[in-house]
Design goal:
It is a single chain. By secondary structure, this protein is α/β, with parallel strands linked by helices. The protein has 2 domains: 4-230, no CATH class; 236-360, CBS-domain, CATH 3.10.580.10. Helix content is 55%, strand content 15%. The chain has helices at 21-34, 38-68, 95-122, 139-154, 162-172, 177-201, 205-230, 236-239, 253-262, 282-292, 315-323, 344-360; strands at 4-10, 13-18, 74-80, 83-88, 247-248, 268-272, 275-280, 303-304, 309-310, 329-334, 337-343. The strands form 3 sheets. A 4-stranded mixed β-sheet has the order 1-2-3-4, with helices on one face. Helix 3 crosses helix 5 (162-172).
Length: 369
Amino acid sequence: MKGSLRIGRAFGIGVYLHWTFSLIILWVLFVHLRYGVGWGGALEGVFLVLLIFACVVLHELGHALSARRYGIGTRDITLLPIGGVARLERMPEDPREEFVVAMAGPAVNLVIAGIGALLLVLTSGIPEVEELATAGGHLLFKLTMVNVLLFMFNLLPAFPMDGGRVLRALLGMKLDYVRATRIAAGVGQVMAVFFAFLGLIIPNPFLILIAVFIFLGAGAEADATESRVALRGLRVRDAMITRFFALDHDDTLDRAVALLLAGPQQDFPILRGDDVVGLLTRNQIVKVLSERGRDVPVVEVMTPEPRFLESDDRLEAIYDRLRSSEYSSIPVLEDGRLAGILTLENIGEMVMVRSALRKHGDPVDSLRT
């Protein structure tokens, strides 16, 4: 995720801290100092927040390690002010597997809370609830109660949160995957509106932020799920662009500008003979034009040895990779030679066409671009 700083690795998974995380630290300092607890109390509040987010990392590792059982990798874990995000390579489509993966995170919080409660009983005993509102109160008690709240909050059926994924998994045991996703997404968006309303009344800006995240995330997840299902059985060759321009390694940016203005293509493979040696993107063209002009050789500014796809690759598996890629186009090879370019836009057009044909009752199996 852009704007994130890597702070470590756990079980081979990179853990990142997004720059916006600093906002919650500043907020905690502000609130504690505003109520006159002094720097000691403010720093203790920050320490509690750091402990809570350590529990959030463990929560996300619960998802990641349970997904690994089903052969699903995790790209990274990123900490944001509203919580953590484990970017799985894909979500399991078997409802029982998704149920396990979704429940694994909250289960970690429940275990942490149980350990905290046991330690409290064995040591100082369970404090009064009033300790939660007291600066400098019992740290272990606060951490235990926060994990109880995290467990309960994450199981709210607000898709795409854990509880929403649990709801989809349960619905998916009776309904088809797309319909189950649409119902779970609708429930999630209704809850997002409720969170936003509650955030305005309290008022609580973080609750409003969570509401926005849930509302947009539910819609995006539902659309992505529908796209993945529509792409089942297709290969990269079915959606790749076969009418495209390529640049020679001896060309300058002047040629690239001419091709950029001639049509909708934004990224250009760079060829040396029949070999693809690089990729030149629209952003690279514009940036270098402003700095060095149009006479610069493309080999000096291209991305060398770009990622390739094979024309026989499964399109469904490539979809998520392209969505998270920094490039809008990926060259496609067939028998070692450049055969086309795959773009997210063209995949979207393929999905729209197939969906329209399905609604009309026309066959889509032989559809090719």
